[in-house]
């Protein structure tokens, strides 16, 4: 926990390139969110498979199988849950794992579901263990046992539930116990988007927001969006603001570059925190290896913030490597910051493989 009680999720939400949604993002996403699978851009395999699942369920007149969606924040898991409800012409109930800390919390939600209703459970991996065990029976048998009383006199009262569809979303599928994963009839992993897909997302959002953008401007924003539609939409809104104030409202490549320079998002999508981590690793520690705690102190951030907020993207971009001896910069990191790596590395610094020594 940081000294100002800011969680890692909150820190990520405050970043322009953070994939966690804040209040503004949630409001805008509601307006930009696709309403059916035909409008949903990207994730072709997931869309094709999910379409088959939903069409088959409708043909049988049955409730759709339970669905598990995994992947990084901002890739469309919540949107797909709403599309599932729309395709099945069913209402949707939205909650999250952290909000269910007791079995009674889950029992109250389940007992109020209507037949065929979709229950979207975000961050399902953070649900409490007692609630998780209750969910097993609810998913498989559409029944829960409500315990009344305590101690030897406690009595379990069976409560029948109407058929429903659970859509679970998680950013850390590995934390889900096998008995829970096995109860989902369909599981899908959401992949990061390619530049061409993000350009389509940006053009669609620009049309809905009544923003004029040319192909070069969309390409520039897409290239800095870290493979995430939520970030692409956020950058689009900030570039729109710049274009309205500093230009004639049209977003071109030059306008996008100038706007994102103001917001300190570089050509690769790195922001101040990302570059701060790389600069400390390269300039203060010669490229590493260096311990995570030491690196966090050097950039003035908490250890958890560096590990959970900055590192995943740096590792995915091949700019930083995690080794048993600490964090190590790659040749790509030196090149990205325009620095020259050491010509030779000693045998004990852990960088021989990265630099070919």
From TrEMBL:
Its EC number is 3.6.4.-. Mg(2+) binds at residue 78. The keyword Secreted does not apply. It is found in: Cytoplasm. ATP binds at residues 32-33, 74, 77-79, 140-142, 183, 193, 230. One of its GO terms (molecular function) is four-way junction helicase activity. DNA binds at residues 303, 322, 327. GO terms for cellular component: cytoplasm; Holliday junction resolvase complex. Belongs to the RuvB family. Has 3 domains, the large (RuvB-L) and small ATPase (RuvB-S) domains and the C-terminal head (RuvB-H) domain. The head domain binds DNA, while the ATPase domains jointly bind ATP, ADP or are empty depending on the state of the subunit in the translocation cycle. During a single DNA translocation step the structure of each domain remains the same, but their relative positions change. Homohexamer. Forms an RuvA(8)-RuvB(12)-Holliday junction (HJ) complex. HJ DNA is sandwiched between 2 RuvA tetramers; dsDNA enters through RuvA and exits via RuvB. An RuvB hexamer assembles on each DNA strand where it exits the tetramer. Each RuvB hexamer is contacted by two RuvA subunits (via domain III) on 2 adjacent RuvB subunits; this complex drives branch migration. In the full resolvosome a probable DNA-RuvA(4)-RuvB(12)-RuvC(2) complex forms which resolves the HJ. The RuvA-RuvB-RuvC complex processes Holliday junction (HJ) DNA during genetic recombination and DNA repair, while the RuvA-RuvB complex plays an important role in the rescue of blocked DNA replication forks via replication fork reversal (RFR). RuvA specifically binds to HJ cruciform DNA, conferring on it an open structure. The RuvB hexamer acts as an ATP-dependent pump, pulling dsDNA into and through the RuvAB complex. RuvB forms 2 homohexamers on either side of HJ DNA bound by 1 or 2 RuvA tetramers; 4 subunits per hexamer contact DNA at a time. This is Holliday junction branch migration complex subunit RuvB. The gene is ruvB.
């Amino acid at each position: 926990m940081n000294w100002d009680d800011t969680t890692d999720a909150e820190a990520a939400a405050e970043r322009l390139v953070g994939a966690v949604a804040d209040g503004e993002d949630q409001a805008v996403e509601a307006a930009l969110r696709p309403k059916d699978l035909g409008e949903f851009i990207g994730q072709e395999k997931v869309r094709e498979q999910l379409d088959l699942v939903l069409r088959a369920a409708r043909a049988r007149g049955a409730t759709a199988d339970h669905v598990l969606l995994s992947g990084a924040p901002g890739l469309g898991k919540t949107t797909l849950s709403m599309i599932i409800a729309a395709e099945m012409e069913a209402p949707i109930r939205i909650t999250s794992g952290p909000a269910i800390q007791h079995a009674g919390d889950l029992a109250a939600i389940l007992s109020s579901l209507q037949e065929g209703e979709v229950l979207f459970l975000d961050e399902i991996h953070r649900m409490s263990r007692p609630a998780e065990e209750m969910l097993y029976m609810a998913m498989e048998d559409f029944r829960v046992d409500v315990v009344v009383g305590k101690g030897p006199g406690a009595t379990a009262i069976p409560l029948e539930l109407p058929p429903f569809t659970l859509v679970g979303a998680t950013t850390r599928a590995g934390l889900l116990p096998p008995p829970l994963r096995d109860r989902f009839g369909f599981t899908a992993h959401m992949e990061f988007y390619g530049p061409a897909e993000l350009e389509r997302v940006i053009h669609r959002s620009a049309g809905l927001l009544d923003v004029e953008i040319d192909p070069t401007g969309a390409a520039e924003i897409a290239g800095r969006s870290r493979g995430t539609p939520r970030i692409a939409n956020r950058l689009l809104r900030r570039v729109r603001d710049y274009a309205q104030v500093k230009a004639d409202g049209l977003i071109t490549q030059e306008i996008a570059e100038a706007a994102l320079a103001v917001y300190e998002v570089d050509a690769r999508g790195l922001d101040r925190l990302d570059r701060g981590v790389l600069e400390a690793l390269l300039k203060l520690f010669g490229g590493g290896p260096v311990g995570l705690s030491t690196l966090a102190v050097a950039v003035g951030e908490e250890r958890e913030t560096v590990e959970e907020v900055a590192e995943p993207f740096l590792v995915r971009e091949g700019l930083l490597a995690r080794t048993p001896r600490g964090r190590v910069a790659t040749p790509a990191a030196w090149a990205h910051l325009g620095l020259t790596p050491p010509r030779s590395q000693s045998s004990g610094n852990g960088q021989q493989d990265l630099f070919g020594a």
